[in-house]
Amino acid sequence: MTVKPQFPAEQSEDGDFVRQEDAFAGWVSADGGTGFRAEAGRYHLYVSLACPWAHRTIVVRRLKRLEDAIGLTVVDPIRTDEEGWAFREGPGSSSDPLNGFKLLSEAYYVSDPHYRGRFTVPVLWDKQTKRIVSNNDDDIMRMLETEFDAFGDASLDLYPRQHRAEIDELNAWIYETLNNGVYRAGFASSQQVYESAARSVFATLDRLEARLRDRRYLFGGTPLETDWRTFVTLVRFDAVYYGHFKCNLRRILDYPNLWGYLRDLYQYDGIAATVNFDHIKRHYYYTHDDINPTRIVPIGPILELDTPHGRERLK
Ligand SMILES: N[C@@H](CCC(=O)N[C@@H](CS)C(=O)NCC(=O)O)C(=O)O
What we know:
Elements: E1 28-29, E2 36-37, E3 43-47, H1 52-63, E4 71-74, H2 105-111, E5 123-126, E6 131-134, H3 137-146, H4 164-179, H5 181-186, H6 191-211, H7 225-241, H8 256-266, H9 277-287
Parallel strand pairs: 1-2, 3-4
Antiparallel strand pairs: 3-5, 5-6
Helix pairs in contact: 1-3, 1-7, 4-6, 4-7, 7-8
Glutathione binds near residues 22, 53, 119, 122 and 137.
């Protein structure tokens, strides 16, 4: 029997999900040398609250206090294969006040009439040149972390020089095996590819569980970029990846250190307000027809993310 994969153009011959490259790679810089100068009020983020990659940029915008400098519009959590993400009034989402776009694809076509990829969030939009600067979450995170200090909290350094090499190293394997690993498990169209991806997810969770035994965050006493990149996957794990993507050896709830760490990050400085389980669950369970054709959204799990985590004792 042949099964239709989620994204046919992004499947390898053996049934692995090979994610498309990001097409827009502009860079906003503090001095404007890249052609896009960092300014307050010039840039706008189009995001989904369901999407982990978009969530990373929302977290950095919040932590760096860039909410007044960079606007944000949230798409409807239901995405269709035909139209992609859409702007609609709804709980937690809205129409597009900036350009009046109905669909996110319009932002892509205005920027590049020949665009041929999927229309992904996050998108960093430049109001001045009226085009997409970047649709790469790693780059958008970094730009918000490092180039907008004149307009936000310059004292917060999420990518400190002394940790850069190790941050890059952790980011790479955490992305491969966990952040994207859950997608590779969920979108696999062969048993063998699924098993190998799902096992790598748990090998990484085990490794992080050990690392977080004596350390409050991945690099010590303060959360850095890597912690937030990891957080967006952990917070979705029990609600969607465990069931919908079949990553079900264990829940985050079953790992004492990871469960405390997840709650610690969730309770950090305005972060809880960036997490929307309604959008997360409706998006995943509605959107991937081949994985969940009934579109029934499960009632659980009960996740008590507000409970005391006891990790203050760690350095
Ligand atoms: N590599 C992208 C990944 C973004 C991405 O894949 N976003 C998903 C949502 S989680 C999306 O927008 N998918 C649209 C589609 O599949 O049509 C990034 O760096 O931001």
